[in-house]
Amino acid sequence: MKPQLKRITAVLPVDAIEPCLPFWEAVGMVRTVEVPHGDRLGFVILAGHGLEVMLQTYDSIADDVPAQAEEARAAKAYLFIEVADINAIERALAAFTVLLPRRTTFYGATEVGYREPGGHAVTFAQFSGTDPDPA
After folding, report:
1. What is the pLDDT of residues 9-49, one digit of tens each?
2. CB neighbours (10 Å) of residue 109?
3. For an engineered disulfide with 72, which of 1, 13, 54, 129 has Cβ 3.0 to 4.6 Å away?
4. Spatial separation of the C-alpha atoms in residues 79 and 92, rounded to whole Å
5. Which residue ranges make up each domain of the chain?
6. In this prediction, what percent of the chain has a pLDDT beyond 70?
7. Which domain of life is it from (predicted)?
8. pTM of the model
9. Which CATH number fits domain 77-135: 3.30.720.110, 3.90.180.10, 3.30.1780.10, 3.40.50.1860?
10. What is the dihedral of CA 59, 75, 19, 113, to 10 degrees?
């Protein structure tokens, strides 16, 4: 019998959690768990729309699992998130750095990508029969 996977959640290592929160909160994610590390947050779970993402600081990782500290600093994630309304995403994230300008792909997605404040690449994609009108 093969193992049954129940959920997959990205854990994004970041220098500091606080600067990342406005990005995730702008797209409707809310903090469900906060774990302090010294005078800052060391770990947080953000959830919304049936999705979840975790942020953990490099310092927290180093204290928790020292053997992974160096690897965590070198790792960058590339997230691909399907959305219902790409225009709403662009409006919500207007203040953030665009990494991938809006485009229509050969596989039928309208995409736009951002560099979230923790340094990770996040692409949002809307699938439909027609390209959404520009915002």
Report:
1. 999 999 999 999 999 999 999 999 999 999 999 999 999 99
2. 19
3. 13
4. 17
5. 6-75, 77-135
6. 95
7. Bacteria
8. 0.90
9. 3.30.720.110
10. -170
